[in-house]
Amino acid sequence: MSWTRKILRVNLSKGSCTSEPLNMEWANLYLGQRGLASKYLSEEVDPTCDPLGPDNKMIMATGPLTGTMASTAGRYSVITKGPLTGAIACSNSGGFFGAELKFAGWDMVIFEGKSDKPVYLLIQDDNAELKSAEHMWGKTAWETDDIIHATHQDPQMRVACIGRTAENGCLYAAVMNDKHRAAGRSGVGTVMASKNLKAVAVRGTQGIGNVDDAEAFMSATGDGKAVLAENAVTGQGLPAYGTQVLMNVINGIGGLPARNMRDVGFEGAENISAEAMAEPRKSDGKPNLTTNGACFGCTIACGRISTVDPTHFSVKDKPQYQGNSGGLEYEAAWALGADTGVDDLDALTYVNFLCNEDGMDPITYGATVAAAMEMFEDGVITTKETGGVELRFGDAKAFVAITEQFVNGGDFSADLGLGSKRLTEKYGKPDLSMTVKGQEFPAYDPRGIQGIGLNYATSNRGACHLRGYTIASEVLGIPVKTELNDTDGKPELVKAFQDATALVDSAGLCIFTTFAWGMDNIAPQIDAACEGDWSVENCLETGERIWNMERLFNEAAGFTADDDKLPKRLLEEAIKDGPTKGQVNRLGEMLPKYYEVRGWTADGKIPKETRQRLSL
Length: 616
Prior knowledge:
Helices cover 39% and strands 13% of the residues.
């Protein structure tokens, strides 16, 4: 069965922690993690509620494979109504926290209400209690992690917490675990702060002992690991270069946006690439990349551990940032680098450290600064607003200065904490926000790569590559190669990727496995672990059910087909030069067909027959 069959419900208003049985009827329809927790959220929360009000709930959820011997089975998610978008939010994280929560005997923790004073939740197997966090309020995520470990003297205790940006109301604050792993997008950390919940500390010793068919599970997971090891991406590319292997690849095909997506193609891409991270520095002969790292149970180990050059201007007087910490991933390197025009690898690594230390999404942060830079260069904002910083594209010192100001609550912090949609609206330039449903784009330009544009436009949590990574097909040829500029077949491709991703997220696995695994590799692992029929067909139907359920939540929250759109820049301003010169995104050609293959109406609504087919 693989589920623990237990939920911990924490009423922060009352200060109570109670155990209740998992709804197994829902588990058999929605599997776990993203799907099952979103079902609970949909049933218990009014979609029209204020995301930062006490009526919103926040759920930390594992999948049935979390904590097992399946490769990458260390994932957990934070599910809530997101303050950045007002849409359903599910932010996925790796590291070790998710597995520890499962080892303590819990499938998920549901937080409701709001505490009168700052608290943290301490979970030790079956025992759970709320403890004062007043001494930790105002501390960074790193400091909070250190304080909890010093208090409980257990090095195997895992901590998920928020930093100062969440407390200060930044709408895209993250929940940080293991110091540099993040449930990063949509502002889930901001919701946590709104409830006066500073941290969750968990220690579990119960392990996983309830796999449905242990022999079949060992066989299926062993086969899966062999496939990952033999694949060029998961067995070689990601361990050696991490996701940063994409920087030069995407730049080379004409798909890397730059300077608030005003341009496509970044002349400084090589300077901030995976290859650059591995090059020895002139100052001390050491590379930016110290080593790779793995989350719980992962055989891929794509994580980056890095150091900043100790002589670099950003850290030369700050020894606390001269050691090893979480290095740049591709999306962060793009948002903090190409999107701001900054190609100083050490400056970007330092800013990434600050994002991890104080818990904010580097994608939205970088893109918001990029929008501010464009407004600054256009004269819309001045040094009066930015606290004296000349906020121009490509200026590494200005970028470092504005980031230090931001995490310390300086002059421009409140504006930057709004995200680019609200920031540009405030200054009368809404077309300069590169967002869908209020969430900023990741590192692939929809003009150069058509399918990812359709995926962005229809994503339930706002612009997101991880909700349907068509880049695998359009760029890498996985599982089949489709052409970048073709729109034919892209609606079907997007739907297939979106449904599969929903299933993988809900199982407790990492989406990077799908560079090598198809559903015929994934379904046998779920089927052996869980009771019931988890055939390929049923797994794919579960993913489709989850996607449609999320859409229904958003409909009830007020979203319509009018929100399935891209910014004017990407539809009307053609790429100026490079391999994809002259292209715009042709969303209008793809969207009607997408609705059709989804079984929705022409105006993007889910009809009764589709809801019945999916048991919604």
